Amino acid sequence: MAKESPNINPEIPDNGQNMLTADACVDGILKGDRYMLSRAITIVESRAEKYRGLAIEVLDRCMPHAGDSIRVGITGVPGVGKSSFIEKLGLHVIEKGKRLAVLAIDPSSSISKGAILGDKTRMEKLSASPSAFIRPSATGSSLGGVARKTRESIILCEAAGFDVIFVETVGVGQSETAVSHMVDFFLLLVLAGAGDELQGIKRGIMELADAIVINKADGKNLEDAEKARMAYLRALHLFPPKESGWTPPVMTASALSGLHIAELWNAIEDYQKLTHENNYWDAHRKEQMRQWLHESFEDLIYQRLQDDEALNMQMKKLENEVINARISAAGAASLLFKSWIKGLHGKG
Amino acid sequence: MAKESPNINPEIPDNGQNMLTADACVDGILKGDRYMLSRAITIVESRAEKYRGLAIEVLDRCMPHAGDSIRVGITGVPGVGKSSFIEKLGLHVIEKGKRLAVLAIDPSSSISKGAILGDKTRMEKLSASPSAFIRPSATGSSLGGVARKTRESIILCEAAGFDVIFVETVGVGQSETAVSHMVDFFLLLVLAGAGDELQGIKRGIMELADAIVINKADGKNLEDAEKARMAYLRALHLFPPKESGWTPPVMTASALSGLHIAELWNAIEDYQKLTHENNYWDAHRKEQMRQWLHESFEDLIYQRLQDDEALNMQMKKLENEVINARISAAGAASLLFKSWIKGLHGKG
């Protein structure tokens, strides 16, 4: 049914008849079925308890088929030209015979605000390519939650055969750090112009960068871009050497003219080669996986707490007791914890 | 036994003979026994599981006797002269017939580093007064944990009859926010001099302040201090009016000469009067109590997780599974959660 009227963000059918099975999901993904991949991502992103079992089974079964990609985080403040840049770099990657998935993290957007349409429009050529899969922002109330869902989407995309993953994020401060924790290579897009340099340094983003690209280096911007390049280069010298042994290049580039797009991709491949040789790649991935487990566990606990209606009712009651000094916060917390555990155990 | 050789930070006797009872603790506190108060704070600060029951019982029983004080947070960067200022203001408060407890939050210090001795030395006159109780920093690995312990210490001090509580913190950025969440009145100490003004504004601390005091306004500093006062006054105009209806005064002061110490205390009493009248005082306290419960609950869960050895062992095992792609992080998190609950329920 749904196959006849495909849509980008398929709802999960609720009636038993069309209920997706883990088998169908995993088979579809491993065959590279983009529609099934999209549905699986929706399931993984869902906060509904009824899909958790399915989501976990699909993820568990995709895991052994995942990991064989290069994950590139791309960030930059609004206006830096991320979309056109990603499209240009993405088309170059596809020309090299790769399959590319573009995922986005944007804690400020929501699907209902039209992010999908926005993404479709702004990467027109890329989204038309059969070798590209573009998935707009996961939505969520917390950045941490959104970020964890994105990691899971990466797994699914890799299992579906995508060997280059771009994770795009808006440069608003926190999401860059979250993204840097899930990618192999972190790319910072900047513009030539006063103040930009300082901003990047202050927010600690420059320390995360494996490459800094001064975008929009075309036309009469070229000279300023080169000046900015020198400034960033000098600024980078202030940071200690990277654990990866990699020296982040600072490059000018243009999505408009295509300047240095190929060179940038070569740099990313050089990084991959270097860190494979010195074993950083593997060690880094392992540390990320470890971190991912801890965050997933914390997230699960947080979700369980939020979804527990009995607990929330008792919380309200105890708030009142604490406010009226009939019990201490520590005492109330202890009572809450005991009945939470009891309730959870009762549910099995 | 311990009474004969009192010490500032009494260890809790471990042998059954000297085991402290909640009755002895609460009776002592309500009688204003400073030694018992000090022991109770140690118990409350302890992370050991065996003292949790006792800590909670003592807190619960002290709660109805707490709350009747004015809680003043005092912050400022190192070098601003917090200790001498607190001593001067503290002595003034005591002269007015009040009983004063000074608690400190310093996430960077630890008792073993000699913080106690430091505190004793730097507030010599105040610590000699029978109307003052000075308690050095709670130690802890996380600021949040330390802050929650400080709230509990406030309760105990209030139950022991202290009607003015100073909570001191170093101006390192995060602890000010934590302190502002547990006090009625938040005092920012600054120095005259370049750069200071901006710093305060940037870190969002000025927004928290109910009064800004330019300290060390004595001798040849007087003129600069007055200039700084005007600058801060102008800067304060940039912020929206406070929910409390209070307009934060900006004052020069000197711990050395005593300049404006009395005036500052009058301002704090004015604040109390105003917010009692407009009901902000009560609403604010209630919101803080609510917040305190939520944080205590989160903290309890976090502690339980950390202390659970079986869980930590399973975590290590599952980290390995995730790293080797045999299971997804989400799948592993779900397994961990199930066995955690099971284990907790088994323990009762």
Could you walk me through the main structural features you see in this protein, from its secondary elements to its overall organization?
The structure is a homodimer of 348-residue chains. Chain A is of the alpha/beta class and 348 residues long. The first copy, chain A, has 3 domains: 2-63, Single alpha-helices involved in coiled-coils or other helix-helix interfaces (Up-down Bundle); 66-278, Rossmann fold (3-Layer(aba) Sandwich); 289-347, no CATH class. Helices cover 54% and strands 11% of the residues of chain A. Chain A contains 15 helices and 7 strands. In chain A, strands 3-2-4-1-5-6-7 form a 7-stranded parallel beta sheet, with helices on both faces. Mean pLDDT of chain A is 85; it is low at 1-10 and 109-120. Chains A and B meet through helix 3, helix 7, helix 13, helix 14 and helix 15 of A and helix 3, helix 7, helix 13, helix 14 and helix 15 of B.
Keywords:
homodimer; 348 residues; Single alpha-helices involved in coiled-coils or other helix-helix interfaces; seven-stranded parallel beta sheet; globular; disordered N terminus
